[in-house]
Amino acid sequence: MSAASDPPLFVGVIALDGPAASGKGTIAKRLAARYGLPHLDTGLLYRGVGAAMRARGAALENAAEAARCAACLDTSTLDDPALRSVSAGQDASIVAAYPEVRAALLKVQRDFAARPGGAVIDGRDIGMVVCPTAKRKIFVTADVDVRAKRRALELSARGETADLAQIQAALEERDRRDRERSVSPLLAPPDAHLLDTTNLDIERSVARAIAFVER
Ligand code: C5P
Fold it and tell me: What angle separates helix 24-35 from helix 202-214, to the nearest 10 degrees?
């Protein structure tokens, strides 16, 4: 049992990276709750930029406009459930490839990471670019067919239609775009702990992440 005067279990930045539907978002939320740390889902920033482009009627190919949207992104609007859709994820991965967009979002992420006490931050380039000195880095992966099934379950739980083959194809396309882009591609930091959740349910995945953070 812990008392209010007990020292915190962890202080510092925990950086989680990995492809879509690997489990990193849920693990990040659970770690944040356990350690009483603020959590930033950086994918939402890129989703927000994609949505702002759509709202302005701008073509996603317009890098200069995307950079403007990133520079004036209103982070208080990022709890809109529409940002969680499959198409918002695809749009995000297009605008995320522009160096100007990434540069504009870097300060928001670094400011968040600099909060006293620390933070839990998840995304694609957190351990490599945003917080290279993070105290703990975890790279979460899972086979794409398992990730597609998880995403399909999530969508059908929200009442959305979910065609497994289409979901897998969309994940593969997004993975490819995220891995092959020239700026901040998705890759495992060499100093990250690798957590493959292919054969793990969420409880076991969280338990492994906690064991790593506290070891
Ligand atoms: O994590 P999520 O699926 O919400 O991310 C949406 C997209 O945003 C990713 O596919 C990726 O292109 C981009 N992203 C990124 N860097 C991050 C977080 C997300 O490029 N740190």
Answer: 50
